[in-house]
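Reviewers of the previous submission asked for a worked example of the structure-prediction workflow described in the proposal, so we include one complete record here. The input consisted solely of the amino acid sequence. No template or homolog information was supplied to the procedure at any stage.
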Amino acid sequence: MTNAHMELNRELTKYSTYKAEQAAYEAMQMSAFKVADALIKQGNGTYAEISGSYWWVSPVDNKLEIVSAPDDSFTDPESSSVFLASGFDGLAADDLNNIRQNLDLWLDNPTFLTGNQTEMNNVVSFWYENNNQ
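From that input alone, the workflow returned the following structure tokens.
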């Protein structure tokens, strides 16, 4: 399954009633969208290692989502944890600002890795189906 002809979900998510956290979350999402654009431009199977996390784009509910994971073991969906940038939770404004800064640093000098897009999508699908019921 490829990601061709799908739109990136650019909806800014409601994160917190605290203004500082909401602003930090929206800023992180905007940087994540820029990372997604750079990955999409490189083509299917492209991902990036950014400050110890792996970021890629996969479809969720018929839209593309920018995804983060602590590792890039795409061959075993059952042992993988993934996080949608649109679904982060439990992070303070400082943590969100740190993520954004790391994304922005990567955008200043992007490096790309190549994986199997089908495996990447399978990891996200498995995680999403088992964590959003």
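The chain has a mean pLDDT of 92. We consider this example representative of the routine output the project will generate in years two and three.
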